Amino acid sequence: MLSQEDHEVLCRVGPGTLMGNLMRQFWVPVLTSEELPEPDSPPLRVRLLGEDLIAFRATSGKVGLVATACPHRGASLFFGRNEEEGLRCVYHGWKFDVEGRCVDMPSEPAESNFRAKVRARAYPCRERAGVIWTYMGPRAEPPPLPLLSGNLEHEPPSVVTKTLRECNWFQGLEGDIDTSHVGFLHRVFGRKAEPGTFEWYLDRDRHPKYAAQNTAYGTIYGAYRPAEEDSYYWRIGQFLLPFYTMPGTGILGGPKGRRGYRLWVPLDDGHTMFWMILPRVPSAGDGQAPPMGPGGNRGFLPDTTDWLGRWKLAANASNDYMIDREMQRTVNYTGINGIHLQDQAITESMGPIYPRTQEHLGTSDRMVILTRRRVIAAARALAEKGEVPACVDDPGLYLVRSGGVVLPRDADWLEATADLRRAHVHEVYEEQARVGLT
Question: Which residues contact 354 (CB under 8 A, 6 or more apart)?
Fold first, then answer.
């Protein structure tokens, strides 16, 4: 259970909040490259960390992200003309480049230097492997982009999926670091699991024991169950500041180990964009376990142009996520179709922001408790001491792995898996060369 003060720190992400200021120390994904498909294409409304912004791709292909309000008299730049390397406000013709500089002010005398004194608020953007990132922080020179398998400089475009969730960012993220729910929420009746797989051990024991620990980049958990004689099956997952998760699916280490990342990016206090970024390397994949229910999310609603108008699932709260009560009795535990939709239904059912002062947490919530404390402590350390998390300036800290492994019962799980959990950039390039992608 959190105090009301800590609850507010964790959930509020707008400008000037402790958590919002922490988020702004990092690069944040804002769009896929495909969402701005070509130079001078129509601008998009974007909400990010509680701010309403306009994204556009200029004639050169560079991406701009500017405040929605024109600095002149506040007209929305969403209606602007994207032309000749800038976004022109249609009210009086003022034009702004991707850095927010006013490059044309036709409503003022030609000899006036007024335009040199006016800027739109703009955030720098960088595009890498199919993802457009922005830096909204205070530094004149942004930190390096994070080193993420699936989003590196010389990789082919990553496999990227996005889904809007209508709940607080940490409320959604908690499901990814809560491994005990897998044996219930995602349970399929009559499934025949192969010996030695996670599902095999899960069916034998739905009440794992837990270990969790802080790391330089976030937190890590190990959930362990009896495996063969004198051994445990460990399901090891990661949280990486400020909003990355790597659930413990797949095999830890090796070519079938998890390479992808999930991102829980706050749009505002009550809306989150759930991203998955996966390397486009056939031998690696995501390490995702086979689906524990039939079908998927049944597609997206048509896009609209409002702030929250994209990546909305057709199965949603308005239709009870298309729950099938007969399926719930005979096929799976929920009657909801697909793992991610099951997660979404539950986290959204709590409301936009569930009051954590009312919870009753148990031993299975160890990773959730530790991660909350870690994130809140990081936000307070920045506010009170100016301490910036290590992974802001050391992007290599993100090169880690997660997954499942069988260990002797007397083994130290962190020590025994140190090499398996370590990733290296050269691994990605070697995999690309092996499958002919370089």
Answer: 168, 171
- Asked if 81 contacts 91 with a C-beta cutoff of 8 angstroms, the reply is no
CB pairs under 8 A, 24+ apart, for 192-199? Answer: 196/406, 197/289, 198/233, 198/235, 198/249, 198/289, 198/404, 199/289, 199/290, 199/292
82-133 tens-digit pLDDT: 999 999 999 999 999 999 999 999 999 989 999 999 999 999 999 998 999 9
Task: Give exposure, 49-80, as e/b (b: 16+ Cβ within 10 Å).
Answer: bbbbbbbbbbeeebbbbbbbbbbbeebbbbeb
Q: Could you tell me which of 239, 232, 229, 296 has the C-alpha nearest to residue 263?
A: 239
* For residue 194, pLDDT beyond 90: no
SS (H, E, C) 330-359: HCECCCCCCHHHHHHHHHHHCCCCCCHHHC
Number of domains in the chain: 2
- Domain stops at, among 78, 101, 135: 135
* Residues 165 and 287 reside in one and the same domain: yes
Structure tokens at 314: 């057709």
Distance of CA 5 to the CA centre of its chain: 25
CA distance 80 to 50: 22
Cis-peptide into 242, omega within 30 deg:
yes
Give the Cα separation of 183 and 206 in Å (integer): 6
161's enclosing H/E stretch is: strand 159-165
Same domain, 182 and 287: yes
Domain-embedded: residue 91: yes
Q: What is the domain range of residue 202?
A: 159-434
Residue 63, domain member (yes or no): yes
Tell whether 295 is covered by a domain: yes
Q: For residue 426, what pLDDT band results from cuts at 50, 70 and 90?
A: low
> Who's near 257: CB < 8 A, 6+ residues apart?
250, 251, 284, 287, 401, 403, 420
Spatial CB neighbours of 305, under 8 Å, sequence gap ≥ 6: 44, 45, 78
- Residue-wise burial string across 201-224, b where 16 or more C-beta atoms lie within 10 A, e elsewhere: bbeeeeebebbbeebebbbbbbbb
Instruction: Report pLDDT digits (tens) over 15-72.
Output: 999 999 999 999 999 999 999 999 999 999 999 999 999 999 999 999 999 999 999 9
Residue 36 within any structural domain of the chain: yes
- Helix segments in 46-197, DSSP class H: 169-176, 182-185
For 182, how many CA atoms within 13 A lie in the half-sphere containing its CB?
Answer: 25
Looking at the fold, whether 429 and 284 belong to one and the same domain comes out as yes
